[in-house]
Each structure stands twice: as structure tokens, then as C-alpha cells.
Amino acid sequence: MQWTLVVPLKPLARAKSRLAGTAAHGLRPGLALAFAQDTVAAALASPAVRDVAVVTDDELAGRELSALGARILPDEPGQGLNAALEYGAAMVRTARPQSRVAAVNADLPALRPAELARVLDAAAQFPRAFLPDAAAIGTTLLAAGPGVELLPAFGTDSRARHRASGARELELDTVDSVRQDVDTGDDLRAALLLGVGPRTAAATARLLIAGQ
What class, spelled out in words, does domain 3-210 have in CATH? Predict the structure, then answer.
């Protein structure tokens, strides 16, 4: 049982503004790209993932993520995160109407393929399901089974909004790498403790050097 993941990614120049206290403006685009690369690489290595569609208008990110094996979709709606996810899911199902589709954040640099598979296998038991983030406020993954609309409600308090929409909240232990998104410096430190992918490790090393 495999899934198609839809990963939204805003233009790198505007990404990760909440890391301003940790990384200078000129370094944040590189960090955002590294997060996305490690997320996509880990996802494609998961036995539960058939393919990954990235919705982005960023040319550099598109080239780099395509080289990893992702399908790149332009953000035609141009109306924010949830519209991009709805569009991506619709494009996936235009080709394969019965696809299992999951929206996944692009900032999971510690993502482990086996942990992602555990989450997706659990999600397959429900029409719609989601995984809250490490802060227990947001959402890092929202899944919809065959023939079920994704109905994304990412953003502020998305955990509560996804629960209110009827999606089943997944209560799983030992899937910390799927919960740990990175918006702040504390988030980045938590991801580093879990162990990040090689591109994030390199980008973080450059960050430390620049801060000396």
C-alpha cells in the first residue's frame, strides 16, 4: 500500500522568516532548500511512498528536488499553502484517481523513512487522518484515502482545525522525526538532536561558521 506525497514549498527567498533570530537573511533560503531536499529524499526512500509531487514556483528548488526524483508542479493557484495542496492533490488524482494522497511539510529535515511508513500505514486505516507536530499545535502530515478529498487546513492551530474537520488524529509513539518541523531556532536545535539529513547538516555547518 503506497502513497503519493504532496509537498508545498514557497519561494526560497520568502521561506523561514521565523528563523531570523538564528540565521541571517542571506542564509535562510539555503536552509529552506536543504530542509526540503532532506525531506524529499527521506520520503522517496520510504517503502510506503510511491512518489512525491512538490508544488513550488521556485526555479532553483524545482531543479534540485526534481534531481532527487520528485515531480514538480507549478503553484498555479498562487493563493497560499492550502490552495497549493488542494491543487497538487487534484493534479495527482487527475492521473491516478484512486491514489492515496498525503500532504507533508517541506521542513522535516530529520525525517526517517521507516517512521514515515509507520505514520502512513496508520493513516490508511481511516478516510482522513493527520499527525500533529512536535508542539502539538500544528500539523506535519494530512492523509486522505482513495476517493476522499484532502481538505487541508494548515496554518495557525491546524491541529484543532483538522480535528474539527473530521480527520482522525494519529496517536503514535516513536515517530518524532515526522513530527519535528522547523520554524524557529528551537525547532532547528530539536531536529539536530534527532539527527538531520546530510544537506541540512551541511547548511547548518555553514550557519555556524558564518556566526563565528
Answer: alpha beta
Q: pLDDT per residue over 170-179, tens digit each?
A: 999 999 999 9
Residue 108 near residue 196, CB atoms below 8 Å = no
The single residue listed with the C-alpha cell 531570523 is 20
Q: Is 125 helix (H, G, I), strand (E, B) or coil?
A: coil
Spatial distance between the Cα atoms of 206 and 40, rounded to a whole number of angstroms? 21
Question: How many angstroms separate the CA atoms of 25 and 169, rounded?
Answer: 35
Q: Which helix (H) or strand (E) holds 161?
A: helix 158-164
Question: Is 137:69 a contact under the CB 8 Å cutoff?
Answer: no
Task: Say if CB 105 and CB 140 are below 8 A apart.
Answer: yes
Q: Tens of pLDDT along 129-156?
A: 999 999 999 999 999 999 999 999 999 9
